[in-house]
Design a protein that fits this description.
Blueprint (H helix, E strand, L loop, with lengths): L1 E4 L6 H4 L1 E4 L9 E11 L1 H8 L16 E9 L11 E4 L14 E5 L3 E3 L6 H4 L3 H12 L8 E5 L4 H12 L3 E6 L5 H6 L4 E4 L4 H8 L4 E6 L2 H11 E9 L11 H6 L3 E4 L7 H16 L7 E6 L3 H9 L6 E5 L1
Parallel strand pairs: 8-9, 8-11, 9-10, 11-12, 12-13, 14-15
Antiparallel strand pairs: 1-2, 3-4, 3-6, 3-15, 4-5, 5-7
Length: about 325
């Protein structure tokens, strides 16, 4: 098969190689997917750059955890009627060496999720990490039905998915975005109330939610935690999946006095049942008419370094997909 890989970490153009590798074969409980589109996430780029300082987990890594295509082979214990099924997959390069930046990938059968009718494969390739992270962030502290939820960073991929999922779960949703240019993305995700960040954000949120916020989906924990604790109700919660500071200052006593629970979320290590619930919820949203995440660029596998650079330095809003 044709694939892209790296055997050392560093800049995309220096370490990414495109060439031929043996076709993989599914083991027991696994399926092989002929990849039609491979989604590129910021985490894929950070792994390649060694930003988390974990080094090379395997001698050779085919990047990207998310993708979509058609199941063309199944391993022992998997029903053969899955062959030919259009699927999106997640976790292909989570604790595994070979991801979706190739003509084929192998995943456990449960991680190959049937794509709803009419949903483009390229859209399916964008779902895994942002969609599953968003579902966990929305539901980490329990059901949000009837509760007031603030989604920070609602113009981003995880934020947009969180807006859609929280609205579908019956929450009163307020979306906060970094700049006015992000407002359209949050509204497209279904947000009924969209606010641009600024020094008066707390006051504007309070005007919409005078009794306080029950739950916050947080993308910039370091910068926003002080405002978050001001806005939260007694017993409220924060689900943080990213931070702009690796060692943020935490307002301990204000959090204590409000009995706030803080959930730090790493998508690779969510429980399997949480990932399955997220996949089901995302499919339900797509089947109900949600258009998913916008795609900014489609890049050929031979130009995968360009795809990584577009994630590092976005030229326009939307997801980047690699097309084998």
């Amino acid at each position: 098969m044709r694939a892209a890989w790296y055997e050392r970490q560093g800049p995309a153009r220096e370490v990414l190689t495109v060439g031929e590798m043996p076709d993989p074969e599914p083991g027991p409980g696994e399926v092989r997917i002929r990849i039609a589109a491979s989604g590129v996430n910021p985490g894929d780029v950070k792994k390649r750059r060694n930003e988390f300082r974990y080094g090379m987990p395997y001698p050779r890594v085919i990047p990207h955890s998310d993708g979509a295509g058609y199941i063309d082979r199944v391993g022992e214990g998997v029903l053969t009627d899955r062959i030919g099924q259009a699927v999106w997959c997640y976790g292909a390069q989570s604790y595994r060496p070979f991801g979706t930046a190739a003509e084929f990938t192998i995943v456990p059968a449960a991680q190959a999720v049937p794509l709803p009718d009419g949903v483009p494969l390229e859209q399916g390739a964008c779902l895994g990490i942002p969609g599953i992270t968003a579902h966990r962030a929305v539901n980490a502290a329990g059901s949000v039905g009837g509760r007031c939820v603030l989604v920070q960073g609602a113009g981003g991929a995880v934020g947009a998915c969180a807006v859609q999922l929280a609205c579908r779960a019956g929450a009163f949703v307020i979306a906060a975005v970094l700049s006015p240019s992000d407002e359209s993305a949050a509204r497209a995700a279904g947000a009924p109330h969209v606010l641009s960040s600024g020094s008066d954000l707390v006051e504007r949120v309070r005007a919409l939610a005078p009794h306080g916020i029950d739950h916050i989906v947080e993308v910039a924990f370091g910068t926003n935690v002080m405002a978050d604790v001001e806005l939260l109700t007694l017993g409220g919660s924060i689900a943080a999946y990213a931070s702009d500071a690796s060692t943020p200052e935490i307002p301990f006593w204000p959090l204590v006095f409000k009995n706030v629970s803080v959930h730090f979320l790493g998508s690779d290590d969510f429980p399997a049942e949480a990932k399955a619930a997220a996949a089901a919820a995302l499919n339900e949203a797509l089947a109900a008419g949600w258009e998913g995440l916008p795609i900014a660029e489609r890049v050929s596998l031979s130009d995968i370094a360009i795809a990584h650079e577009l994630v590092e330095h976005p030229a326009k809003r939307g997801r980047i997909v690699v097309v084998p």
